[in-house]
## 1
Amino acid sequence: MKLAVVALLSMTAAAAGDDYKPKKDRERLGKSTRHGAPPAAGTKPAKLINLYNQWTNDWLGVDPANPPSVAEIDIFLRDHFTNEAMKMEPKLIDATCAAAVQFKSDIVWVVSGFRHPKYNLMLRKKGHQVARDSQHTHGNAVDFAIPGVPTEKLHEWAKEQKLGGVGIYLTSKFVHMDTGPIRFWAGD
C-alpha cells in the first residue's frame, strides 16, 4: 500500500512538470508579505547590508530595495540593558545603510539605538557622556561605525546628510546620528 502511494505521488509530481510545488509550499509563498518573488534563475541576488548590534550580538540583514519592517527595526535597536524596544525612527536604518553604500561596506556596527530613560540616568550618574534628555531615549538616535572607515570620514559624511544632530567620539570610534535639531559636537 505504501509503495502505491509513493508511486502515485511521484507520478503526480512528474505530470505537473518542473513547476510542481507541494500545497504547503504554495500556501507559505502565498502568505509571505515581506519578500517578493524569488529572483529569476541566473540573476544575481540583491546585496545585503548587515547590521550588527554590538551589545545584543544581533544581526539584521537589510536589502535596501526591501527594507525590514518597523517591528524588526525596533527589536534590533532595543535597549540592551532593559531589553525593551521602542518605536524607532526608520530614517536611522536608512542613514546607516546609506553610509555603508557610500563607503562600499556590507557591515555596519551599531553601538547604541534606543536607550531606556532609567538606563540613560544610570549612565549619567556614572559620569558617562550622555545627554540628560538624549535623543536615544526618544527612539531618534543611533551610534554606529563602519569597519575600516576612519571615524573622521564617517563623521564628515554624516554632517553632510543634514539629518539632525551628529556627534563624533574619537576614543570610542563611533559616530552619533539623530533626527533632532541640526547640531554638532565631539565627545570621547
## 2
Amino acid sequence: MHDEAFSYTRQTLGWPAPPVSRGPTEAPAGGGPCEGDVEVPGGAFQLGAPYGPGFIHDNEKWAHERRVEPFAIARAPVTQAELAAFADDRGYLRRELWSDAGWAWREGEQALHPVHWRRDGAAWLRRDFDRWVPLEPHRPALHVCWHEAEAYCRWRGRRLPTELEWEVAASGEPTADGRLSSRKRRFPWGDEPPGPERANLDWRALGCVDVGALPAGDSAFGCRQMIGNAWEWVADDFLPYPGFSADPYADYSQPWFGTQKVLRGGCWATRARLIRSTWRNFYPPHRRDVWAGFRTCAPR
C-alpha cells in the first residue's frame, strides 16, 4: 500500500517514474475501446468478505445479505477520450452539472480541466510522471476526484454505481435461467489468483492499459478490468458493515467512517497479493492525486 502511495506521490511532484526491477513482459491481450453496458439481474447477494483463510481488513467484515435491483453498468471505466469530451463541453464551468459540495470544491481549486492535463492547440496533453504525452484515448481517465466523477455522470445522464452494485457486477454470477446466483467469486474471473493475462497489477505496465485489454479478466456478466488498471469510485460513503468491530489496528477504518467515499478494484500499482473483489479503499471526495477513475451505470 505504501509502494502505491510512493508512486502517486512521484506523479504529483512530477518526478520520474519509479525504478522497477523486473523481467520482460508481454503486451496484454486486447486493446482499444470496450463500449456498452451489461445487464445484471437483481436478487439477494452476500456483500462483503466471507469467513475464510487469509488476511481481511476489518471494513470488509463480514459478508451479509443485501438485495439488489436489476441494473445496467458500463463494461469498462470512463476513458481519457470521454473525460476530454466533458472538458471540451465546458463541463468544469457548468454549475448545473455539479452538486453544491462539488461546485465549492471546483471553485476552491479553480479546476478548469482534469489535473495533470494541459492544452496543446486543440488537443490535450497529460503529464505522465516527468513527461508530457498525448492523451491515450482508450485508457482509463486517472486522477479524477469523486466530485468530478459525479459531475461527469450528470453530464452523460448516467450515475455512479453503488458499492453493492459494483461488487455484484465484479463477483456475482448468473444462474442458467438468468437470475442472480447465490455463488460469489473471489475475483471477477473466478477464484484463481490474478495473473498478467487477467489484470494489470504489480507496476507491470508502469501505467494503465487500454480498457479493451485483458478480456480473460472479465466478470461473469462481462465487465472488464474490475481488478487492476484504475481504482473506481462508487456512490457510497465509507461506512461500517453490520456488526463491525475494529481490528488490532483500530485507526485503519474506524476514524474515517462517514467522511470518505469508497473506491473498489485496485490499480496498476496495486500488489496482486493484496487485492480482491471485496477490498474497500477510501478517500475524501476531493482527492485526485490517487490512481482513481470510475465507471458509470445507466439511470434507474
## 3
Amino acid sequence: MSGIERIRAIQDFDSARARAFRRSLRAILTGRAQRLRSIDPLLRAAGFEGRSFGGVQEIPVDRIVGSAAPDFKSGDFDPGFLPINRRMRERWTRIYQAMVEGDELPPIDVYKVDENYYVIDGHHRVSVARNLGRPTLNARVINVRTRAPLPPDVDTEALLKAAEYAAFLDATQLHRTRPQARLECSRLGRYDEIIQHIQGHRYFMSLEMGREVSLQEAAASWYDHVYHPIAEAIRRHKVLEELPGWTEADLYVEITRRWLALSEEGEPAGPDPAIQDLLAEHAKTWWRRRRKIRLPA
C-alpha cells in the first residue's frame, strides 16, 4: 500500500468512525438501538425451523442488516456497519485497500432469513463495502427457515407479531399440515381470536366424530372448511384492494365478527353479506373524511 493510498484509507476510516459517533448521539436522544442487530432475538421470536446451504452468490449489501456471529462484539460496529472502535483501523484499512485495488477477497459467510442477511464472518468487509458504496458482495449463504415470516424492516412490534404467529403455528402446526396457509395478522392479539374459532370448530368436530379431536387436526379442518371459503370470498370481492393495510387474516377476523352480528340481528348472514357490510361502512367513513377535508377552516 503506497503512502498516499494508506492515508486515504485511514481518512475514510476516521470519517466513518465520526459518522458512527454522530449517529450514536442521535440514537441516544431518540432512544433507538445503537448496536448492530443480532439474529438471535429474531429467531427466538419467529421460531427456528431449519437451515440449508444456498451456495456462493452475490448478495445485495443493503440487505445485510445484522450479525449472526456467536462471539461477535456488538460494540465494534453501529447498526449501519460503521466502525466504532479505533483498534479496528489497521484491519479495516487493509480490506479497504484490497477492495479499491480489485484484489479477490474470500466470500463472507451469512445467514439468510427471508430477504435479509446476517453476517457470520466478514463484518469488516461489509463495513468497507458499505463505505465504498459497493452494491453487492460475494457470500456463502445459509438459508434459515422460520415458522413465522419476518418483514424486511423488523422493529419491536414486528418481533412481537412474529412471536405471536410462531406460537400460533407451534400450537396448530398449520405450517406443516397446510404449508400454503399464510395467516399473517397486522395487529397484535388477533391470533387469540383465531385460536378460539379453531377450538370451537374442534368441539363440534369431536361431537360429530364421537372422539377427542386434537387441536392440530381441528386446525387443518378449520382451514379447509372455514377459513379458506372466507378467504376465497375476500379475493372474489377484491377486499384487499379496497382496504389497504389489512391482511387476509385481519379480514377473516373482522368478517366473522360481522357475520355473527348480522345473524344476531336477523339479517342475511354469511361471508358475502358480511363483506358488503364492511365495504359499505368503509365507504361511508371514507366519504365523511373526504367531506371534512373539504370543509373551510
## 4
Amino acid sequence: MKKLLVPTVILLAVIAAAQQDNPPANVEPMDQTPIFRVKVMARTTKAVNYRHRGGSTTVDLKGTTLLPEAKGKAKVDSKAGRLTISVDLSNMLPAASKFGGQYLTYVLWAITPEGRAANLGELVPNTDGKSSIEVTTDLQAFGLIVTVEPYFSVTRPSNMVAIENIIRQETKGFEQPIDARFDMLEGSQYVIDAPADQLPSAHAGPKDPLDLLEARNAVAIAKAAGAAQYAGDSLKKSQDMLDRAEDYLRRKQGRTPIGTAARGATQMAEDARVLTLRRRQEEKIAAEKRAMQEAQAKAEAEGDLVRDYRIVAILTRPLL
C-alpha cells in the first residue's frame, strides 16, 4: 500500500502544478463589456407599386396624433425609369422642437415593401406650418411618411411618425396597395448618452440658423456615442466643418456658406455615429464569443480535473 501512495502523491502534485500554471480564464462580467443600446420598434404603412406607370398619380398625406391638423398631398411622376415626388404640406405645427429637446426638424421617408427606409429630404415648415419639397428616387414601390428627427441626415426613421400617406381609391399603381413593415429607432436613442437638456440647441441663441443647430447637436450626439474612440477620423472632419460654420456665423458670412458647412458637418457626424454603433456591436459580439470560448475551455479543464481525480481514486482504492 505504501508503494502505491508514492505515485499517487506525485500525480496529485502534477495536477496541482498544472492548475497553477494554467489557471481558469476569468470571464469578464457582461455589465463591463460595451453594450449596443439601440431600441428598435416596428410599424406598418401603405405602399404603392408605381413601376411601369407613365404619367402621374397622387396620394394624400395626413397627420398622425403628433400633428393631427397636418395635411397635404404627394404627386408622383414617372419619367425615364425614375420617379419625381412633389410634396406639399400645410398645418405642420407645432415646431419639431416641441416634441423634445433632441428634435429639431422633420424628414420625409420612402418605405419599401421590404422595409427599407430611404431618407428623401428635410421638410422645414414656415411660420404658417407650410412646407414643400421635390425629390427624385430610383425606388419604384414605396410608402411615404414624415418623422420628427434630431437632424436632417439620420439614416433610420425615429418612431415619432408625424405624417403618413393615405392611398386614394383613384391612386394609380401597378398593383394594389401593400403593407410595408419597417423598423424605427426609439426617439430616446439619440439622448442615451447626451441628455436633451445638455445638447447645444438647448442653449442656442434665438437667431442661430437651424442648419447650425442640427450640426451642433449631431456632433455632440456622435461624441456622446463614443465616436472619438471608434470613428475618430470622421468625427474630426465633422468637428472641422462645424468650426468652419461657426466661424462663418461670427463673421456674418450669410446663410448659404453657414448652411453648406453646417450640413456637411451634420452628415459627417451621422456617419461617425453610425460607424461607432456598428463597431461597438462588433466589439460586443467578439466579447460574447470570447466569453463563451473561455467558459467552454474552463468547463473542459474542470472535466479533465474530475477525470484525473477519479483516476487517483481508483489507484488509491484498497485492493481486496
